[in-house]
Amino acid sequence: MAEMNQPLVSVVITTYNRGYCIANALNSVLSQTYRNFEVILIDDGSTDNTEQVVRELGDERILYHRLPQNSHISAASNIGLSMAKGELIARLDSDDRWLPGKLERQVAYLERHPEYGVCFTYADLTPALKEGENPPY
Question: Does the predicted model carry a pTM greater than 0.90?
Answer without folding.
Answer: no
